[in-house]
């Protein structure tokens, strides 16, 4: 299922996926962003720049060029949290950060992720519901342009690839 909400120049996106694996396994696979290239075609490269602590890492990500645009790059902080209570979800939160050791380069257009991530809810010991959220700004809009014109194929394809990867 896909939901969108537009407010000003920000588009909020929610994708809900049913997955037939234990929630802790989905959490483990989705919180390590170096796996993301295996299922998300928007991730060309992804490397860990810094392990802040056990629950937080800073990654450098590059994305392919979209027609008429330079390829994009991102410096993101990925935070992972396990649930405190059985009814709470696992959380993988993502946002852009600035790192002086990784300044913007002329080769890429530095883009920003305001707020994105996953919530993973336990349905049973062997299945879970994965919700992907993203607040998309005009900087990331070229990647979703086709979706905004009514074709949600790219988002749907990425979600299907994510499910296939997890299962």
UniProtKB/TrEMBL annotation:
One Pfam family matching this protein: START
Any one Gene Ontology molecular-function term assigned to this protein's record: lipid binding
One GO cellular component term noted in the UniProt record for this chain: cytoplasm
InterPro entries noted in UniProt: START-like_dom_sf (IPR023393), START_lipid-bd_dom (IPR002913), START_lipid_transfer (IPR051213)
PROSITE patterns: START (PS50848)
Annotated START domain residues: 15-136
Protein name: Acyl-coenzyme A thioesterase 12
Organism listed in the record: Cathartes aura
């Amino acid at each position: 299922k896909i939901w969108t909400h537009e407010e000003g120049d920000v588009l909020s996106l929610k994708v809900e996926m049913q997955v037939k694996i234990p929630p802790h396994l989905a959490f483990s696979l989705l919180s390590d962003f170096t796996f993301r290239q295996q299922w998300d075609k928007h991730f060309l490269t992804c490397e860990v720049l810094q392990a802040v602590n056990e629950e937080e890492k800073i990654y450098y990500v590059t994305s392919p060029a979209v027609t008429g645009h330079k390829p994009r790059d991102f410096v993101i902080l990925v935070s992972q949290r396990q649930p405190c209570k059985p009814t709470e979800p696992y959380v993988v939160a993502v946002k852009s950060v600035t790192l002086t050791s990784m300044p913007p380069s002329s080769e890429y257009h530095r883009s920003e992720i305001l707020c994105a991530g996953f919530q993973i809810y336990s349905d049973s010991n062997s299945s879970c519901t994965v919700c992907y959220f993203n607040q998309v700004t005009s900087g990331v809009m070229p990647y979703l342009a086709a979706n905004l014109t009514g074709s949600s194929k790219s988002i749907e394809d990425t979600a299907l690839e994510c499910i296939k990867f997890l299962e």
